[in-house]
Amino acid sequence: MNLFRLFGDLSHLASIFILLHKIYTTRSCRGISFKTQALYVAVFVSRYIDFTYISVYNTLMKLFFIGSSCYILYLMRIKYRPTHDPSIDTFRVEYLVGPCVLLGLIFNYQFTVIEVLWSFSIFLESVAILPQLFMLQRTGEAETITTHYLAALGAYRALYIPNWIYRYFTEGTVDPIAVTAGLVQTGLYLDFFYVYFTKVMQGQKFELPA
Amino acid sequence: TEVPVGHDEL
């Protein structure tokens, strides 16, 4: 464990608390893509069912991410269902899941169910934010709290990059699948980060140019 | 270089 990874994980934790806070305080899941949230459940379930014991920290985090992502689906689907507008959440997820299944079958460290699922989850995570970003693009604006959620989520994978560089020099390990997918994942946030830093951080509303 | 074993990252 190094600081980059720790702060990455903390940023991931923070993003979930920000999202819950947004849903609770506005009593609404407006502006949140149900599809992206459902993809995260698929990501965590397929990655964390390996039951390999690493550490208490690792196990607790895994349980938390599975539990909280399912809980968010419950909030969106049942508790605050009327506040979700499916007509703007129109990204076709099958275009993401299909290729990720294929990539997982082709690129993995061992051709076993657990390892293929692990690779699949890494690839799927890298693109799971697309329905959310697509929705943002369609509406052209977002509540500030929603942008904080996205920024924390983006910072999580961004912080994993210096972590991998650090691990390469200190442990001599490289995980090419995670690194490739992680770079793609972080790259997808670049446009968002640009608007976030130039507008939201300056106290302005998140609005995309028409 | 080797691949980290056991996927210790989240």
Automatic annotation (TrEMBL), chain A:
Q: What is its main location?
A: endoplasmic reticulum
Q: Name one GO molecular function term.
A: ER retention sequence binding
Keywords (alphabetical) are:
Endoplasmic reticulum, ER-Golgi transport, Membrane, Protein transport, Receptor, Transmembrane, Transmembrane helix, Transport
Q: Name one GO cellular component term.
A: endoplasmic reticulum membrane
GO BP annotations of the record are: protein retention in ER lumen; protein transport; vesicle-mediated transport
Q: Which PROSITE patterns match?
A: ER_LUMEN_RECEPTOR_2
Q: Where in the cell is it found?
A: Endoplasmic reticulum membrane
In terms of Pfam families, this protein maps to: ER_lumen_recept
What InterPro entries does this protein map onto?
Answer: ER_ret_rcpt
Instruction: Name the membrane topology term.
Output: Multi-pass membrane protein
Where do the TM regions start and end? Answer: 63-80, 92-111, 177-197
**Family note:** Belongs to the ERD2 family.
What name does this protein carry? ER lumen protein-retaining receptor
Q: What is the lineage of its organism?
A: Eukaryota, Fungi, Dikarya, Basidiomycota, Agaricomycotina
